Structure formats: structure tokens, C-alpha cells
Amino acid sequence: MDEDRLKIQIQALVRWRNDVVCAIQDYHSWLQQTGLETPEVEVRLFDSIETVKSDRLTIAFVAEFSRGKTELINAIFFADYKRRLLPSTVGRTTMCPTELFYDSEENGAYIRLLPIETRKQDTSISDLKRDQNSWKTLALNTESPDQMAEALQEVVRAKTVSIDEAKSLGLYSDDNSDLATQSSQDTPAEIEIPVWRHALISFPHPLLKQGLVILDTPGLNALGTEPELTLNMLPAAQAVVFVLAPDTGVTKSDLDIWQYYIKNALDTESQKGVIATLNKIDTLWDEMKDEHEIEEAIQKQCRQTAEMLNIDSTNVLPVSAQKALVAKAKQDPVLLEKSRILALESLLADDIIPAKRCIVSNRIAHEVGSMINNSRNILSARLEKLRHQSQTFHGVTGRNTDVIKHLTQKTREQQIAYNNNMKYMQSSRRTIAKHSAAIMNELSLEAFDYHVTKTRKDMTESWTTGGLKKGMKVFFEGISDTMQVVARQTSEAHEVVESVYNKFHQDHGLPEMEFPQFSVEGYLKQLAALSRKAEAFRNSTVTTMTEQSFVVKKFFISLVSHTREVFFKAHHEAEVWFKEIMNPLIAQIHMHKQLLEQHLDTLCKINDTKETLAKNIELLEKQCASLELQLSQLDTLETNLHRQLGDIDDTEMALTPNAEFEEEAAEAVPAG
Length: 672
Description:
Elements: H1 5-34, H2 39-53, E1 57-63, H3 69-77, E2 98-101, E3 110-115, H4 125-128, E4 136-139, H5 145-152, E5 158-162, H6 163-168, E6 190-194, E7 196-202, H7 206-209, E8 212-216, H8 220-225, H9 227-236, E9 239-244, H10 252-265, E10 274-278, H11 291-309, E11 316-318, H12 321-330, H13 333-339, H14 341-396, H15 401-442, H16 445-461, H17 465-508, H18 521-539, H19 541-544, H20 548-580, H21 583-605, H22 610-645, H23 650-654, H24 659-668
Helix pairs in contact: 1-2, 1-14, 1-22, 2-14, 3-12, 9-10, 9-20, 12-13, 14-21, 14-22, 15-17, 15-20, 15-21, 16-17, 16-20, 17-18, 18-20
């Protein structure tokens, strides 16, 4: 059971997603039945469902060359193939960043390879992913292990190019001449470089089909020359497994990777999602030493590693990926236990997956929870007013016409006040529209691109280290100033909206409602983090090892691409916010108007006959009963949603085998 812990937890994550989607869909059906559904609410619910369905669990593996990182991936995820699925040999293996996932939109498995020559373009990898013509695509035959293994060898292909060509690609400077094909101290004539810049591998492995994404990264040099890895890909991962060697511990290049790329990419302060592994502990299995001495040497190295990385010792795990792969392939439980791979798998299963689920839960709880609260407010307000009308009609039974006229006049006055406040509301909406136009202009990609063009021009014309740093600083200061302007405009818009909500609450007794909030605080933090990463990257020792003009060019492109994405998300969120900000109030106003008209119509007919009054009282009581039932149903729906989003006993879930998963796993592993 322990051996399958990671697989079982991923299965549990998938079942949890399905349960959450069903809970949201049940709420959607309830909205349709009660007539409370609006186009805006429908879009928000669709987005929430897509958020859950498309959610992925990304685990990144980072290491310097020859640490056994790819072998570790094979041992944890692909041992069912009983062979090395990914190329893993002595020396340098992974030459380009590789993403393994399942592409449900494609008919078959494939490997897509981005030529190294694209480094000369002013285009980020994220943008190139949208252009299939830039990639070489090879089909993968999942029925043939030999064909798959042969095709996957592409990720380790290298070629020899001239020094000038390497410099133009940003893959050589005088400080990294260790890559040269000759050992003399003179400038070499040629250098070995990877054929491919990035690889995308999609095939129907059960874990990948259930949303797992594996990012396999090359060593220090590649991390330094592909800033998108550290700016975009590593921060998007839920876990980073940092692979080290047990005999050397944390080397200088390991420490550079940790300091400049992992520590800056993840929240290492909380130590969530950061795991250091000492791989190849089998090299310490010395027959001249007893078990106690070997264990003592391993634990000493773990403690020293934890101290150097400043992380908890429980996040440093010794493993032997090679022995684990052999043990799983040969079904050797003794060797499997000795490899200690199960401890790493358990940590991934029990810490990383629940943390991922928590992130999605919080988002859905906030988004769908606010919609449920608004639905309850609408129904509760309607129920309260209908009960008040019913009590009024019970009170006028047998009364004279003067009392009824008084009630009728009072209701007409409420209608007049309502109409006057609607004029105020329309005026306020025009003010809000002005704030919207100002914010949309500040966050427009056209304005952003203009700022980028100006910054690039200034940096190019000041081609010195000081000038480049100043250009980056000015760039982020300008972007931050823009966000501060948006924050002020947002605050002013909030005040206008709040005044409208309060006026209708005070003048017409509408319930106090929560309206959607929009804040740029999160985007300001993202920009500040990008600014810090920009400075760290610019000052890193790895950056100085590469041709300066190329590094600055490619770094700036990656930086701008990420910053532009932040602005795009902020623009989209603000746009949606302005469309939805008045919806809760409008729904209440619409209901209030209907009830006023119904109440006035009933009062006008009361004098007809006593039977008419009795029928209206009966109708009101039926409406109240229907609303009470709807509120009860809504409470049940909310309870179910919170139950799905809340903590569930994972142990209980883990003890329930997933037959569909096991059957799919068997089908995914080719014969032989």
C-alpha cells in the first residue's frame, strides 16, 4: 500500500475535483430552477468549473548535471514500464528543459522539440508554445517501448558549433570554456551545445492523464540562460525536488542553483513544496562498513545539507533512484525499502498534494461562496417582504377602506422613492463607468507595450552595466506607479458603489450585501517579486558567464513577457469586476420592484371581495413556503460544497482502490 501512496493520493485528488465540480453544477441547476440564474453568474460558474477541471499538479526536478535527476523521475513515476522511459546515462543527459504531461486535445502521444536556434528570436517560449510551426513534432508509439525510448533520446542530442555561433545563441563566453571540445587555454574553435531548446512530451500515462505535470530541468548553465524557467515555470510548480549528490553534498554550483533559482522561485521561508534529495546513496553502501556506520554517514550528510540550504532536516531525503527503479521493475521489496524512495513519494503525496488542493479550495470557496451568499440574500429579502405583506393583509381583514387607502398611498410613495433612487443609481453608474475607463486605460496592453518600447530604447542607448540596471529599475518603477494609480481609481470606485448599496439598504430596507471586490495588491506583490528576481538574475555569477548582450536581450524578453501577463490578468479581472460589481444590487432591486407592484396590485383589489383578500393571503403563504424550501435547498447545497472543499480523511480515501485507474495503468504500459 505504501508503494502506491503517491498514485493513490493523485487518484484521490482527481476524485475530489470531480466531487467539487458536481457540487458547483448542483448549485447551477438550483439557480436555473429558482429563476435566479443570470448570464454573468453563469459565466462565473463556468470559470469556476474550468478552474477545477483544468487544475494541474506540477512537480519540477532541478539539479546540476550528473545528479541522477532523470533516473529519479523514472523511478518515481514510470517504473511500471520496467525500463528507463526517459534517457538516463552517465554524464550529461537532459540537455534541454522537458515538460511531461497529457494533451487531451491531441489524438496521439507526441514529443515536440524547439530548435536551439529560436534563442536568436525576440520571442519567449510561452509565445512559441502557441506556434506549432516553430516546433519539430515526433509521434510516440505507446505500444512500442523501443520506439518511445528511441524518440525520447532526442532530448539529449547535442551538436558541435563554432564559437561565434555559440555566442550568437548566448551559450558561450570566455568564462564557460569548460564546454569546449579542446582543452587548451586558448579560445576553442568549437563547442558542444544542445540541439533543442525545449521539449514537450505528451503521452497517456495514467498519472499524467489525471493532471500531473513533470518539469525536468538541465543544469546551472541552462537555468541561467533560460530565465523563463526561473521567472515562469519554477514558480508555477507546486513542488521542486532539488537533487544533490551524497558524496559531495552541496557544491558551489548546487548552491548557486539554490540561491538564484529555487529560493527566488518558491516560498522557501515556509518550506512548502521544497524537497532536497541526496541521490545515489548506494555509492555509500560500503561493504567494509557496518550498517550503523553507513547510516551515520548518510544522516550526517543530510544534516549538513539542511544547514547549508537553511531548511528543515525533514525536507532532506536520501534516496537511490537507480536501485528503486530496479526494485520496482523486479518487484524486490527488500531493495525497494533500502532505496528509501517510498519516503520521498510519501512526502510528495502527503504534503504537496493536500497543499495544492487547499489552493483550489480557497479560490472556489471565495468565488462560489460569494454567489451562494448573494442568492441567499435575495431569497431572504424576498421572504421577509412577503411575510410582511401577509401580516399586513391579515391585519386589514375587516378594516374600513380608509386603512386600505392609507396602505395604498404608502406603497405608492415607496414606488416614487424607488424611482428617484433609480435616477441616483444611474448617475452613480456613469461615475463608475468613468473610473472603469480610466482603469482600463492604465491596464491596457497598448499602454504597457508603449512603456516597454521606451524602456528598451533607453536601455539600448545606455549600453553599460549601470545603464542596464537603471533601465530595469525605471521599468519596474513605472509599472508600479501605474498599478498605484489603478489602486487609487479602484478605491474611489469602491466608495461610489458602497454609497449606492447603502442608500438602497437605508431607503428601501434591502439587505446589506457583499459586492465583488477588486484589489491590485496581489499584482503589486508579483511585480515586486519580479523586480527582485530581475536584480538577482542581473547580479548572478551565471549571468556574467554568458554573452552580455544576449543575456540582457533574452532576459528582458522573458521579464517583459511575464510582466505583460500580470497586466493582462489585472486588466481581465478589472474588466470582469466592473461588469459584475452592481449585479447583486440589481438583482435585489428587480425583486423589490416586483414585490412593490404585486403589493400595490393586491391592495387595489382588496375592496372587491373578502374572497379576493383570502386568495391573496393564501398565495402569499404559498410563496413564502416555496421560498423557505428554496432556502433549505440552498443550505444543503452550501453544506455539500463546503464538505467537498474541506478536509477529508485522505487515509480513508487511500484505502479505497480505484479499479478504473489500475485498469488504465495496465493498458498504458506496453508489453515487454
